[in-house]
């Protein structure tokens, strides 16, 4: 059974057109993460939520925003996607300081 | 801070041989380490973890070794199979978050 679910698996958007990616979890973990992964690179942490507390990485562009309306769901909003934002976006969850479990990812294409 | 590196970006092994993938980290305060396997088009999959109070941990066909003296972590895969072909990442806990190494692509030759 899927524990970390990401929708959609593939997303195509146009340059500058806002897009929202979603993540849900059935693990009841209090920490949720969003990573960006470009081809042949390691996942790069964008931000994470510890319960409702939002923690932004210092180098995450303002173009990226996130919402966590409840324990189970977390959203990644890209306000004005550029060509450089094309990547795989990975959601992960964990208990505090414990193993992170990843979803299958959403591959974003920007035309 | 923490930085994590790997010794080899790619590794090719013959089917049935053992594989060893290495990872080096910088911060001696790091206390929790994870190996992930990522197949093409999929998210990273947890393989095995180890905490800093241990130096070896074994799973099914996999062993993780931790050398805190030289800040080195390795993943050993016994009897490597075609299904083991993937990119392997080490992840090192620093503070609340994990820092990922750059990854090693393992190719299994028939």
Tell me what you see in this structure:
The complex is a heterodimer of chains A (111) and B (110). Chain A is 0% helix and 52% strand. Chain A is built from no helices and eleven strands. In chain A, strands 2, 4, 5, 6, 9, 10 and 11 form a seven-stranded mixed β-sheet that branches. Chain A is globular, with a radius of gyration of 13 Å. The model of chain A has no long low-confidence stretch (mean pLDDT 94). In chain B, the strands form two sheets. In chain B, strands 2, 4, 5, 9, 10 and 11 form a six-stranded mixed β-sheet that branches. A five-stranded antiparallel β-sheet of chain B has the order 1-3-8-7-6, with no helix packed on it. In chain B, strand 7 and strand 8 form a beta hairpin. Chain B is globular, with a radius of gyration of 13 Å. The termini of chain B are far apart. Chains A and B meet through strand 5 and strand 10 of A and strand 4, strand 5, strand 9 and strand 10 of B.
Largest sheet, strands/sense/barrel of chain B:
6 strands, mixed
Number of strands of chain A: 11
Topology pattern of chain A, helix = H, strand = E: EEEEEEEEEEE
- In DSSP terms, counting alpha (H) and pi (I) runs of 4 or more, how many helices of chain B? 0
Radius of gyration of chain B: 13 Å
Task: Evaluate the radius of gyration of chain A.
Answer: 13 Å
Q: Which structural class do the helices and strands of chain A define?
A: mainly beta
Average pLDDT score of chain B: 92
Please state roughly what percent of the residues of chain B sit in beta strands, choosing from under 5%, 5-15%, 15-25%, 25-35%, 35-45% or over 45%: over 45%
Low-pLDDT sequence parts of chain B: none
Low-confidence stretches of chain A: none
- Cα-to-Cα separation, first versus last residue of chain A: 34 Å
Secondary structure: number of strands of chain B: 11
| Count of DSSP-assigned helices of chain A | 0
Gap between N and C termini of chain B, in Å? 41 Å
The main pleated sheet of chain A reads as: 7 strands, mixed
Mean pLDDT of chain A: 94
The proportion of residues forming helix of chain A, as a percent range, comes to under 10%
Largest interface: A-B, 25 and 20 residues
């Amino acid at each position: 059974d899927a524990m970390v679910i990401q929708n959609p698996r593939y997303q195509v958007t146009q340059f500058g057109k806002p897009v929202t990616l979603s993540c849900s979890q059935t693990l009841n973990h209090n920490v949720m993460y969003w990573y960006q992964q470009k081809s042949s690179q390691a996942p790069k942490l964008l931000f994470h939520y510890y319960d409702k507390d939002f923690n932004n990485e210092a180098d995450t562009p303002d173009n990226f925003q996130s919402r966590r309306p409840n324990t189970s769901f977390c959203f990644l909003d890209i306000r004005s996607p550029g060509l450089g934002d094309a990547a795989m976006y990975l959601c992960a969850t964990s208990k505090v300081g414990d193993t992170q479990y990843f979803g299958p990812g959403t591959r974003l294409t920007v035309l | 801070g923490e930085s994590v590196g790997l010794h080899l970006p790619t590794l090719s092994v013959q089917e049935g041989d053992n594989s060893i993938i290495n990872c080096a980290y910088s911060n001696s305060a790091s206390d929790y380490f994870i190996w992930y396997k990522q197949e093409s088009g999929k998210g990273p999959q947890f393989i095995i973890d180890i905490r800093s109070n241990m130096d070896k941990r074994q799973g099914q066909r996999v062993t993780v070794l931790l050398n805190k003296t030289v800040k080195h972590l390795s993943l050993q895969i016994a009897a490597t199979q075609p299904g083991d072909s993937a990119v392997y990442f080490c992840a090192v806990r620093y503070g609340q978050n994990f820092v990922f190494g750059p990854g090693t692509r393992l190719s299994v030759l028939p």
